[in-house]
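Table S5 (text form). Sequence records supplied for joint modeling of the two-component complex.
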Amino acid sequence: MTHPADHGIEAPDPTDPDRTSVLTLRGALKTFGPVVALADGTVELAAGEIHALVGENGAGKSTLVKILAGVHQPDAGEFLVAGQPVSFRNVADSKAAGISVIYQEPTLFPDLTVAENIFVGRQPKGRFGLISRIEMRRRAGELFDQLGVPIDPDRVAEGLSIADQQIIEIAKAISLDARVLVMDEPTAALSGVEVDRLFAVARRLRDSGSGILFISHRFDEVFGLCDRITVMRDGTYIATHETGATSVEAIVREMVGRDIDALFPKTETEAGDVVLRVSGLTRPGVFHDIDFEVRAGEIVALSGLVGAGRTEVARAVFGIDRYESGTVEMAGRPLRRKDPRAAIDAGIGFVPEDRRKQGLVMDLSVERNAALTLRHSLARFGLISGRAEREAAETWGKRLQVKAGSPEHAVSTLSGGNQQKVVLAKWLATDPKLLIVDEPTRGIDVGTKAEVHRLLSELAGRGIAILMISSELPEVLGMADRVLVMREGRITGRLDRAEATAETVMHAATASLEASR
Amino acid sequence: MSLDGTVGAAPAHPTAPHSRPSALANLLRLRELPVILALVVLVAVTAALNPLFLSEQGIKDLLLNATILMILAVGQTLVIITRNIDLSVGSILGLVAFGTGSIFVAAPNLPIIAVFVLGMLFGAVLGALNGLLITIAKVPALVITLGTLYIFRGVNNAWAGGTQYFAGDRPEAFGNLSVDTVLGFPVITLIAVVVVAIVAVYMLGTRPGRDLYAIGSDPDAARLFGIPVTRRVLLAFVVNGLLAGLAGVLYASRFNSVGATTGSGLELDVVAAAVVGGVAIFGGSGTVVGAAIGALLLTTITSALTALRVDKFWQQAIVGILILAAVVIDRLASVRAARKLRMLEARNV
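The corresponding structure-token record, covering 866 residues in total, follows.
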């Protein structure tokens, strides 16, 4: 890992007023219906600098990036590239203006070779107007030499590590003469060596005059690599600092910057017996040595940044994904690996992150969805009666106050909050001992959010153990009796309700592995 | 055995040096390798057991039998590579073949080349119909072409009724295309080889050709890259229809009679040939040369089993086993590569 002292000598002076701005976004507004995703998107990127953009999950960074990339069009605000006002209709416009965005997981064509991925749609031509593979390979090789990275231009992209895929995207950006490079959490899936290599490439590009916008949650990287830092919170620009003139503590304070404690009070409950015990759960490359337990009536939050391996652990516990070693016990009895049916029978309910894809059958009616997990107990002689289905759905729909036109309407017609309630109804009908909820309030409006929280609290009060995965700090701090923080597939923090603050959780979620050991 | 070679040759380590791969490594990486090996083994074993199999007439028969399927497989490959499929090719072939018979009866003095052009145009129009329905209505190709399979066949039935045209109804020069040889190769086989070559160069060496691979590899990403997805997919269907039309004309030359049921059920043989030839059914990879060899393999198996006096009923089962083998080999190779990579990354953490 690099140190702040590494840069500074040849890095351009950020206070220099003559330094040219390659990209300026001021007061960008973006709303989706009633939801304001970005209230004041502001960032000013200079040529020859690496500029960090930091903020909590949901601070509006991704929306800002998508505006730069031409995916979203801002509703208001000023957008200049090289001093000229621009308005992008699509991704191609943004590319033509010299902006390249490298996402956390790049989209390459898996079946095409590395060289073709770089030059797709603009392959160099040779004799008879046919594509010259030799020329294409030579140019790709040159790009990789320039980047100092050995990648075989002739191999297909399928199976390349994420790090190599990012390098290919960077090579493509260079071959397109991009003046602005946006890296959206590029290091989240990289190992230490790969991060160092990426940073070396980034510094080389900076020194050749490109402007790089670097989005990251890792403070060691932000402070080691970047010249300036812009902080966002709740969709709003907060401040921009010279890296040398600020500190991790100051940045975290600005990122969190609000009173959290009073937001989502969970009612106090006496924790009962251990319901779920996970020990030594390991899946190489995904999560390692996961140990924890959840007691009856307790809400345990699994916190950490997106991609830390939280969902993967939950899926392994529920038996969707396999794991190499370790055990999962429900009420003292070991659970079979990779057997969701056994998990349901043992009393686990699982409310997945992506309701549309995993939690609901969108085209089926509300009652069908609510009764989906009950098929065994509702069936008479192997057939499910429509009436039994309706009754079960009604009971739970009423208790959860699902607002649907009719139980027979397709779930896809409901609002996000009400869909989430149907998912909850579906699992509550099975009378679970343990409920795993993954991002229970993602994409839900504020009013319904509070209702979902009230519900979870009530369920815990009735003695159900709840394991809640959440990226929203206020939710974690307000709801959880205990907080487990994961980073890079390991648990790096175990905090009681009293110990858990925005700072302690953030620290455990972002501190380098070395420091946490 | 070929499996080990394929996987081992792919440089799985991210920091592998980018030296030019050796010719041998390139050969082992070929997706078509299994089908070529299978063909060589099949021919060698059959020839050893029945020397007549590789007589001059024997080879000529093998090639003649494969010709029409080869052309169809090449067209189908274009479509499959874009992550689509065309099940209506058998019906297109039938319509064009019957149309060819009708033309010769209606206008006996029409030059043969004009008949070819008309047949191919007819096929292209039918292909365009498929393509337009799929790209405009955005309904999966499987469903649309299943529909047009029956529609085209229905039109053929209504048009032909009980009518059949026989070899005697057509000019002798037209029928001779399937009899005459140049350097030992039947003329219609040479036509097929030229088609394979042209399409292969197009797919390998032109931007629109490469676009088809990109589209099948990741349609959403292709759109993001500004590739004109709709136009390219439409083009694939038109060319496929055109080639099915060509196959229809050649069918009329090669076989004695054409009527209402000509070409029924051929579509599955065509898809089988492409899959056996290494064309991925979900698009993005495979070559027309592979598909053409796949077609040759399928027709050769039938001849070989007949030459070896294997019961006719077993022949279909063996074709089925081949298809499964092709898919399993492909799948195993990618699973092994993925696992290797995951372990490698786990060690780096």
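Note: The first strand of chain B starts at residue 165 and ends at 166.
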